[in-house]
What we know:
This is Valine--tRNA ligase, mitochondrial. By secondary structure, the chain is α/β, with parallel strands linked by helices. Among the domains are: 250-278 and 463-567, no CATH class; 305-445, Valyl/Leucyl/Isoleucyl-tRNA synthetase, editing domain (Isoleucyl-tRNA Synthetase, domain 2, Alpha-Beta Complex), CATH 3.90.740.10; 717-894, Isoleucyl-tRNA Synthetase, Domain 1 (Orthogonal Bundle), CATH 1.10.730; 906-992, no CATH class. The protein has 33 helices and 33 strands.
Amino acid sequence: MWRARRVLCGRLAGAYRLCSSNRAQPSASSSSPVSPALRGQAEKQRRRRVKERAILSSQHSNTGDHELTWSEKEEIKYTAQTPPGQKKDTTVPFPSSYSPEYVESSWYQWWEKEGFFTPELAHAVDQSFSLCIPPPNVTGSLHLGHALTVAIEDALVRWKRMQGYRVLWVPGCDHAGIATQTVVEKRLQREGKHRRDLSREEFLQEVWKWKNDKGDEIYHQLRKLGASLDWNRACFTMDPGFSKAVTEAFVRLCDSDLIYRSERLVNWSCALESAISDIEVESKELFGQTMLSVPGYQEKVEFGTMVTFAYPIDGHDGEVAVSTTRPETMLGDVAIAVHPDDPRYKDVHGKHCRHPFTNRVIPIVTDTMVDMELGTGAVKVTPAHDHMDFLLAQRHSLPHLTVIGGDGTMMPHCGQWLKGVKRFDARQQVLDALADKKLLRGKKDHAMSLPICSRSGDIVEPLLKKQWFLRCDEMAKRAIQVTGVSLYGVSIMHLCLCSICSDWCISRQLWWGHQIPAYHVELPSSSDKQEVGWVWGRSEDEARQRAAIKYGVKMESITLTRDTDVLDTWFSSGLFPFAMLGWPEQTSDLQQYYPNSILETGSDLIFFWVARMVMLGTELTGQLPFKKVLLHSLMRDKHGRKMSKSLGNVIDPLDVISGISLERLHQKVKDGNLHPRERTVAMEAQRKDFPKGIPQCGTDALRFALCSYKMQGEDINLSVSQVLSCRHFCNKMWQTLRFTLGVLTFPFHNFQTTPLSSVDRWVCSRLYSTVLQCERGFEAYELHAVTSALYSFWVHSLCDTYMECIKPVLGKLDQRAGVQIHREDSGRAKQVASNVLYHCVSVSLALLSPFMPFLTEELWQRLQPFRPDAAKASLCLQPYPSSTQLNKFEGNHDSDVFGLKLQVVKVPSKCSTPHFLCMVKFYHQSYSAVTVSLYGTQYLIAKMHYKQWTVLRYCFTVRVRVRNDLHALLPTNEISSKITPLCPLLSLFCYWI
């Protein structure tokens, strides 16, 4: 039942059934053969237009993100003379405030030069962890969607590396055949050139120049994002080694009879003059007559109308009327189909009609696929230009007549009056000719979904072309039988494999890409070149040997001509997990790191990339290419639109890291290839979202913010204000370390002394709990749970609570009015407090390192002079903290006691509602005191630790009393509504006096 999902035939059948017959939906409410996939795309287009109108409307906020409040910060730069690749000097004075530019300087070059990212690095456990980065296309720079992938994958990689695994994370880029060629062609057009003006070799030189520029830019962005990739193994899908793998895969699949050449209907872009894949077909929803711009036409073209015309019955009076949205294709009609049970056409079964322009006789056939309720109930059959008609023609052994060429012009056999005429110009000429013959019966508005090439903007034309196809049905079935992939995020791997039932067209009529290693054979005795056949081989010599054996002739008598087509990009991308490791050679990397431990990618690629990797990997290597699949949600802009270069709403992660002005954002949009309307929408969205531009947030803040989102579930609507709040967290960490360095003294003793106070034990218990949450979060791939636990511990437990409590002990608390400071006389207590503080900060930095590599390295290196034992060179090589090291602090009496204290000091915030304040004795004055009423046991505990409350109470006095009679404290009728239970387990109640 899933076989129709995402299949090309099912996707375009509805669209072009609309365009070729009366079976197209006449209204939005009536039944229609439009496929669910196409309807879904149409609905996306509708929502997209709604969002665009919201952006442009006056109702949309003009103030941008109201949470995006920021002011220019003082620029602090690292000025020490550190040669590239040398360790950063952390002995220089510690700056007073956090500066991303200062922090991120020099570290990455040192990490890379020292080889910290290579699997050859010394490791603690005899286990490996491997994955590949989803290779970004060399069509342009990375956007925040790519940054999300990098942040997630690098967090996992750094975590595993700190656990002692032998880690391999391979970087790479995809040549993105059709996308890259389109971009380069547009650049040439701006220079007044055309691809056809150049030879294939000259054009490929232009593309390689583009690739080198963009590839370097992408790798620069990855380094700026802190991605700990093994650059020694960087892989490009057009590298010689990778090309060898692609050729080997093609030959093996041909030898297994899984690849074949046939003439079939394909998606065709007349602008590109190439077949295109499903993923490159978008649908545009039309609700009636609509004028659209089409590449190659100066005037807009009309769509969204349905024309009805008549076919005269040959040899009899009468006619059969049919309807179509594509009258130009009627030159290719080979039959008229009616339902066998339709009483209106019982008399014409088996009869013929006469074509009004070609004088051909076309049969009237009966087929149950015809919907009697739609239109006239009679359907024109154009098998060379419609997927459903193609299937009908196969059932009735009808011929195929192609009337539109690959360049979008009418074929010669259409007649001199249409020969060479562009297809949409021919549309009007056909209508005029039908009117002249008095066969035109009407024209009306018609709702439809129009398939459009996402690369060229051209209207997709189903054309009958000889192409190379890969049989997917059997491969998918075999993959399903062996699939043991653990899937995190969604559970539709089997569904996607089942959906790949139609054969995959893998050939493209492009110049940029892997040229198909197949050769057309010409023999001396053959008069017709088309009658011989094709052979394939890893080289021309091998192909010649195969041809000699196949046709029983001598090698020297054979003439071979290599196919000029290239392979679909997704074919080579599907080989990436093993081709990057040296396949087909049995390299040590392939033996050690294949299958990959995990594949992490966006959920939108599960069909086009993930399922194909499973099929090809299983077929070619006998193994699944990865053990686990982790899918994350899609990144969208603030308005809910998917980030796309075609919409102009992509944000360069470097612009968030370094900051950018609104003017520069506008200029980037202007420099792109956007349609004028899209350009207007994009610039207006920028003006409203970033009225002052984007502030400098830094790499660590961006990574932490991205990992703070739940990876599975709803799509992510990223707001820069959330990244900015993470920058504030970075500054909090910075100031925490400044405080810590100010209280640490030499000689520094190791953290071995048992903490003396309940607050020490409480913070250690909280640290243990945080480490445990991090372990569980990483193991479950729930990074948002890890970041939440780390933020909560650092800000609330460490800074807001523990550091405030130990300031009197360390002599760091300012005198404030009304606050009596209790200083510890014991030097041992001071030493213990500083030891605990150091331990909490040091462990927390290690926990945060996978998310904030630059900041944690900077701060950790500053702590090293106080470290009692010899440390490894870098924090990224330190063991990741384990809960087993801190399990002695798991839940203890003293930590519970301190929890009681925290509940007491939270009274003011919990009792600040106007309803409760009516009980305050000094209603119009500042609160002066709070009385806490406790049961006897809790009262005794509280009195023992009463002095610590004065540190946390801020501006009010805490009084403790034994709870005797609650009813005596307040009127009976006020007890239920006026008394707030703050700690039910301890029966804690409070009231104001």
